[in-house]
Amino acid sequence: DAGVTQSPTHLIKTRGQQVTLRCSPKSGHDTVSWYQQALGQGPQFIFQYYEEEERQRGNFPDRFSGHQFPNYSSELNVNALLLGDSALYLCASSLKPGSSYTFGSGTRLTVV
Amino acid sequence: AQRVTQPEKLLSVFKGAPVELKCNYSYSGSPELFWYVQYSRQRLQLLLRHISRESIKGFTADLNKGETSFHLKKPFAQEEDSAMYYCALYNQGGKLIFGQGTELSVKP
User: Fold this and answer.
1) CA neighbours within 13 Å on the CB side: how many for A100?
2) Å between A96 CA and nearest CA of chain B
3) Among B43, B94, B98, whose Cβ lies nearest the Cβ of A97?
4) Which residues of A touch B9 (CB under 8 A)?
5) pLDDT over 90 (residue A60)
6) What single string gives the DSSP state of each residue in B53-89?
7) Omega of the bond prior to A70 within 30 degrees of 0, cis?
8) What is the DSSP letter of A48?
9) Could you give the count of Cα atoms lying within 13 Å of B5 in the half-sphere of its Cβ?
10) Do A33 and B94 touch (CB under 8 A)?
11) What is the structure's pLDDT at A98?
12) How large is the average pLDDT for residues B12-19?
Protein backbone atom coordinates (compact mmCIF):
# COMPACT_ATOMS: atom_id res chain seq x y z
CA ASP A 1 0.00 0.00 0.00
CA ALA A 2 1.62 3.25 -1.18
CA GLY A 3 -0.33 5.38 1.25
CA VAL A 4 -1.21 8.90 0.12
CA THR A 5 0.62 9.92 -3.05
CA GLN A 6 1.09 13.53 -4.10
CA SER A 7 2.51 14.95 -7.31
CA PRO A 8 4.61 16.76 -8.15
CA THR A 9 6.97 16.86 -5.18
CA HIS A 10 8.35 20.28 -6.05
CA LEU A 11 7.10 23.05 -8.29
CA ILE A 12 8.25 26.55 -9.18
CA LYS A 13 5.73 28.97 -10.67
CA THR A 14 5.69 32.63 -11.58
CA ARG A 15 3.39 35.10 -9.87
CA GLY A 16 0.06 35.28 -11.70
CA GLN A 17 0.24 31.76 -13.07
CA GLN A 18 -2.06 28.87 -12.26
CA VAL A 19 -1.08 25.55 -10.67
CA THR A 20 -2.67 22.13 -10.24
CA LEU A 21 -1.56 19.73 -7.52
CA ARG A 22 -2.64 16.10 -7.44
CA CYS A 23 -3.37 13.59 -4.71
CA SER A 24 -4.15 9.88 -4.69
CA PRO A 25 -5.64 8.74 -1.40
CA LYS A 26 -4.67 5.68 0.55
CA SER A 27 -6.35 2.53 -0.72
CA GLY A 28 -9.82 2.25 0.79
CA HIS A 29 -10.07 5.92 1.75
CA ASP A 30 -12.79 8.05 0.20
CA THR A 31 -12.26 11.47 1.78
CA VAL A 32 -9.50 13.90 0.83
CA SER A 33 -8.49 17.05 2.66
CA TRP A 34 -5.97 19.67 1.60
CA TYR A 35 -3.75 21.72 3.87
CA GLN A 36 -1.33 24.58 3.34
CA GLN A 37 1.76 24.65 5.54
CA ALA A 38 3.80 27.83 5.39
CA LEU A 39 7.36 27.77 6.67
CA GLY A 40 7.45 27.58 10.44
CA GLN A 41 3.68 27.19 10.76
CA GLY A 42 1.27 24.38 11.40
CA PRO A 43 -0.87 23.07 8.54
CA GLN A 44 -3.89 25.23 7.68
CA PHE A 45 -7.07 23.58 6.40
CA ILE A 46 -8.03 24.54 2.84
CA PHE A 47 -10.96 22.22 2.07
CA GLN A 48 -12.24 18.68 2.22
CA TYR A 49 -13.82 16.53 -0.48
CA TYR A 50 -16.16 13.61 0.01
CA GLU A 51 -18.42 11.99 -2.57
CA GLU A 52 -16.96 14.37 -5.16
CA GLU A 53 -18.27 17.41 -3.32
CA GLU A 54 -16.58 20.06 -1.20
CA ARG A 55 -17.83 19.46 2.33
CA GLN A 56 -15.89 21.98 4.36
CA ARG A 57 -13.78 24.96 3.49
CA GLY A 58 -11.23 26.90 5.46
CA ASN A 59 -10.46 30.59 5.29
CA PHE A 60 -8.95 30.62 1.80
CA PRO A 61 -9.95 32.81 -1.16
CA ASP A 62 -11.83 31.55 -4.20
CA ARG A 63 -8.52 31.38 -6.07
CA PHE A 64 -8.17 28.04 -4.33
CA SER A 65 -10.44 25.41 -5.82
CA GLY A 66 -10.52 21.67 -5.95
CA HIS A 67 -12.03 18.60 -7.41
CA GLN A 68 -12.52 14.98 -6.45
CA PHE A 69 -12.82 12.27 -9.06
CA PRO A 70 -14.91 9.07 -8.94
CA ASN A 71 -11.78 7.09 -8.00
CA TYR A 72 -11.46 9.41 -4.94
CA SER A 73 -8.29 11.11 -6.20
CA SER A 74 -8.27 14.87 -5.93
CA GLU A 75 -6.79 18.01 -7.41
CA LEU A 76 -6.05 21.37 -5.84
CA ASN A 77 -6.02 24.33 -8.20
CA VAL A 78 -4.67 27.75 -7.36
CA ASN A 79 -5.23 30.65 -9.77
CA ALA A 80 -3.45 34.00 -10.00
CA LEU A 81 -0.58 32.84 -7.81
CA LEU A 82 0.83 35.23 -5.25
CA LEU A 83 4.24 35.13 -3.61
CA GLY A 84 2.43 34.32 -0.35
CA ASP A 85 1.10 31.09 -1.82
CA SER A 86 4.58 29.62 -1.51
CA ALA A 87 4.19 26.74 0.92
CA LEU A 88 4.07 23.00 1.38
CA TYR A 89 0.68 21.68 0.30
CA LEU A 90 -0.39 18.56 2.11
CA CYS A 91 -3.05 16.10 1.11
CA ALA A 92 -4.62 13.84 3.72
CA SER A 93 -7.05 11.01 3.18
CA SER A 94 -9.43 9.25 5.52
CA LEU A 95 -12.13 6.64 5.52
CA LYS A 96 -15.15 8.93 5.73
CA PRO A 97 -15.05 12.46 7.13
CA GLY A 98 -14.18 12.43 10.80
CA SER A 99 -11.91 9.39 10.65
CA SER A 100 -8.17 9.42 11.23
CA TYR A 101 -6.11 11.10 8.56
CA THR A 102 -3.17 9.69 6.61
CA PHE A 103 -0.95 12.42 5.19
CA GLY A 104 1.04 12.55 2.00
CA SER A 105 4.57 13.92 1.78
CA GLY A 106 3.35 17.14 0.24
CA THR A 107 4.07 19.32 -2.76
CA ARG A 108 6.52 22.16 -2.19
CA LEU A 109 5.26 25.14 -4.24
CA THR A 110 7.54 28.13 -4.75
CA VAL A 111 6.10 31.25 -6.38
CA VAL A 112 8.68 33.65 -7.79
CA ALA B 1 -13.33 30.36 18.09
CA GLN B 2 -11.70 26.98 17.58
CA ARG B 3 -8.01 27.26 18.19
CA VAL B 4 -5.00 25.20 19.23
CA THR B 5 -2.07 26.87 20.93
CA GLN B 6 1.39 25.42 21.38
CA PRO B 7 3.29 28.04 23.36
CA GLU B 8 6.79 26.69 22.78
CA LYS B 9 8.35 26.83 19.32
CA LEU B 10 11.43 24.95 20.48
CA LEU B 11 12.01 22.62 23.41
CA SER B 12 15.51 21.36 24.03
CA VAL B 13 16.25 18.60 26.58
CA PHE B 14 19.00 16.11 27.30
CA LYS B 15 18.62 12.40 26.67
CA GLY B 16 16.93 10.70 29.61
CA ALA B 17 15.22 13.88 30.84
CA PRO B 18 11.44 14.13 31.08
CA VAL B 19 9.61 15.91 28.30
CA GLU B 20 6.35 17.83 28.30
CA LEU B 21 5.08 19.53 25.17
CA LYS B 22 2.25 21.89 25.95
CA CYS B 23 -1.00 22.19 24.06
CA ASN B 24 -4.04 24.29 24.92
CA TYR B 25 -7.23 24.41 22.94
CA SER B 26 -10.36 26.47 22.54
CA TYR B 27 -13.47 24.58 21.48
CA SER B 28 -17.11 24.61 22.47
CA GLY B 29 -18.28 21.06 22.89
CA SER B 30 -16.48 17.78 23.43
CA PRO B 31 -13.11 18.02 21.70
CA GLU B 32 -11.30 15.23 19.92
CA LEU B 33 -7.58 15.86 20.18
CA PHE B 34 -4.52 14.42 18.53
CA TRP B 35 -0.76 14.66 18.52
CA TYR B 36 0.99 14.38 15.16
CA VAL B 37 4.74 14.03 14.70
CA GLN B 38 6.97 14.86 11.77
CA TYR B 39 10.48 13.39 11.81
CA SER B 40 13.13 14.94 9.59
CA ARG B 41 12.34 14.40 5.91
CA GLN B 42 9.30 12.26 6.71
CA ARG B 43 5.62 12.86 6.37
CA LEU B 44 3.30 13.96 9.12
CA GLN B 45 2.05 10.94 11.05
CA LEU B 46 -0.38 10.33 13.86
CA LEU B 47 1.30 9.81 17.23
CA LEU B 48 -1.74 9.40 19.43
CA ARG B 49 -5.35 10.44 19.91
CA HIS B 50 -6.95 11.08 23.23
CA ILE B 51 -9.91 8.74 22.80
CA SER B 52 -7.65 5.71 22.50
CA ARG B 53 -5.80 6.51 25.72
CA GLU B 54 -2.80 4.56 24.50
CA SER B 55 0.92 5.09 24.85
CA ILE B 56 2.94 5.29 21.66
CA LYS B 57 6.75 5.24 21.78
CA GLY B 58 6.48 6.00 25.48
CA PHE B 59 4.44 9.17 24.94
CA THR B 60 1.15 9.80 26.71
CA ALA B 61 -1.29 12.69 26.71
CA ASP B 62 -4.21 13.35 29.01
CA LEU B 63 -7.13 15.57 28.13
CA ASN B 64 -7.81 18.09 30.89
CA LYS B 65 -11.13 19.74 30.09
CA GLY B 66 -10.92 22.06 33.07
CA GLU B 67 -7.64 23.54 31.88
CA THR B 68 -8.46 22.94 28.18
CA SER B 69 -5.10 21.26 27.78
CA PHE B 70 -3.73 18.15 26.10
CA HIS B 71 -0.05 18.12 27.01
CA LEU B 72 2.23 15.44 25.58
CA LYS B 73 4.57 13.75 28.03
CA LYS B 74 7.39 11.25 28.07
CA PRO B 75 9.33 10.34 31.21
CA PHE B 76 12.69 9.71 29.53
CA ALA B 77 13.48 11.40 26.22
CA GLN B 78 15.49 9.61 23.54
CA GLU B 79 17.52 11.17 20.74
CA GLU B 80 15.21 9.58 18.17
CA ASP B 81 12.33 11.61 19.65
CA SER B 82 13.78 14.75 18.05
CA ALA B 83 11.09 15.98 15.64
CA MET B 84 8.32 18.51 15.08
CA TYR B 85 5.23 17.84 17.16
CA TYR B 86 1.81 19.21 16.31
CA CYS B 87 -1.24 19.22 18.50
CA ALA B 88 -4.51 19.13 16.55
CA LEU B 89 -8.22 19.38 17.22
CA TYR B 90 -11.01 17.77 15.20
CA ASN B 91 -14.07 19.91 14.64
CA GLN B 92 -17.41 18.48 13.58
CA GLY B 93 -17.13 17.04 10.12
CA GLY B 94 -13.49 16.12 10.29
CA LYS B 95 -11.57 19.38 9.87
CA LEU B 96 -8.28 19.20 11.74
CA ILE B 97 -7.13 22.42 13.34
CA PHE B 98 -3.40 22.39 14.04
CA GLY B 99 -1.24 24.30 16.45
CA GLN B 100 1.93 25.96 15.20
CA GLY B 101 4.07 23.07 16.32
CA THR B 102 6.89 22.54 18.79
CA GLU B 103 10.31 21.41 17.69
CA LEU B 104 11.71 18.93 20.18
CA SER B 105 15.47 18.60 20.24
CA VAL B 106 16.94 15.82 22.39
CA LYS B 107 20.65 16.26 22.99
CA PRO B 108 22.99 13.35 23.77
Assistant:
1) 13
2) 9
3) B94
4) 40
5) yes
6) T--BTTBEE--BTTTTB--EEESS--GGG-EEEEEEE
7) no
8) E
9) 10
10) yes
11) 74
12) 97
